[in-house]
Amino acid sequence: VQLVESGGGPVQDGGSLKLSCAISRATFSSYCMAWFRQAPGEEREGVAAIYTTGGGALYAESAAGRFEISQDNVKNTVYLQMTSLKPEDTGMYYCAARIGGGCSGIQLPLFDVWGQGTQVTVS
């Protein structure tokens, strides 16, 4: 599995941004996809997760009500729609996949494959 993020960039406080994660070379039909973020000097933290074959999404408390994770199985793409962005949302956003496991959480050790990240800067 290969993951490529896009859609990051500068955005004003209170603005919106939609990130995309293109999934390629997938050999499994079902896996947990997640978005993580990492601010400078901080640890990488989970933001949201979704199971590719359906089911509810998971959100970190900081993202609930403002962010929405979704998927397009035809395009093999996972999205993160972010609204009401705050300066504290600034960071590198990473797409991640957990192969073969469930989607019970968005803890970093659960995920096997990572993209290179896309930078989001809110000011």
Encode the helix/strand succession as letters: EEEEEEEEEEE
Query: Main beta sheet, described?
Result: 7 strands, mixed
How many alpha or pi helices? 0
Termini Cα gap: 34 Å
What would you say this structure looks like, in words?
The chain has no helices and eleven strands. It has 123 residues and is an all-beta fold. The strands form two sheets. Strands 2, 4, 5, 6, 9, 10 and 11 form a seven-stranded mixed sheet that branches. A four-stranded antiparallel sheet has the order 1-3-8-7, with no helix packed on it. The chain is globular and about 40 Å long. The model has no long low-confidence stretch (mean pLDDT 93).
Quickly list its features.
mainly beta, 123 residues, four-stranded antiparallel beta sheet, single chain
Task: Give a brief outline of the structure.
With 123 residues, this protein is mostly beta strands. The protein contains no helices and 11 strands.
Give the arrangement of secondary structure elements:
Elements: E1 2-6, E2 9-11, E3 17-24, E4 31-38, E5 45-51, E6 58-59, E7 67-72, E8 77-82, E9 91-99, E10 113-114, E11 118-122
